[in-house]
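Deadline looming. Please check this record:
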Amino acid sequence: MGVRLMVVDDHRLLAEALASALKLRGHRVLAAAAPAAGAAELVISRAPEVCLLGTATPAEPGMFDPVVRIKRERPQVAVVVLGPVPSPRGIAAAFASGASGYVRHDERIEGVERAIMKARAGEAAVAPQLLQGAFSELLNPAAQPDDEGQRLLQMLTPREVEVLVRVADGEDTRLIAAGMGIAPSTARTHVQRVLMKLGVGSRLEAAALAARTGLLERAERPPASGQVNNSGQA
C-alpha cells in the first residue's frame, strides 16, 4: 500500500524528480516543492503520513525548526530529512528536533523508499553507514576535512556557477538563456561544460551533487529569469 507523503525542498528540480519517482512506485505525493520558510505550514495543513524535508545545511542553527513545529502540531507525521553528507552534529540535530530519519540527497530511490516505510512504521530511518561514518568522525576528527563544495566551485567559471544554480532551480535551456541574456545554443554549451567538469551525466545529477556538497549555498544567486543579464555574451 502506498504512503501518503510530501516532498518539501526549495530546489524544485530535485523535489519534482523525487516526487515523480515515488509516484511511479505507487505512493501518493501531495506536494513536490516549497521554500524552507513555508515548509512547516504546508505540512501541517496537508498532514501526510511521511514528509521528506530537504536541507542543504543540516548543522546550521535553527535549520530543523520546521521539524520541531511539525512534530508539535502534527505529531503523527513522520519527518525524514533529505540532506548532504551529514556531520555528527547534523545527524544529532535532525533526530533531536523530532525527525524519524536522515537520507542523503544522492541516495538511490530504493533507499529513499525504505526510509519512508521505516518512518511510517515508527522506526528510525537512517542508513547504518551514515551512523558509522558519524561515529568515526566523532572518534577521529579530521584536522582539515576536505571541502568538496569549495573544490568543485573552484573548477567552474563564474558563468558556469550561475548556470549550475539555474539548473538546480529547475530552469530549462530557454529560461537559462533568457535569464543570462545569451543564446540558447550558448546556454546549452555552458550546461554541457558544467556536467563534464562535475563528472556527471545529467542535470539532475549535477543539481544533486551541488546540493549535497553545499556548493549552491556558496554561490551567488543569479537574477530572476525574467531579468536580462547585461554582462554580455559568454
About this structure: The CA atoms of residues 84 and 90 lie 10 Å apart. The longest strand covers residues 78-83. The radius of gyration is 18 Å.
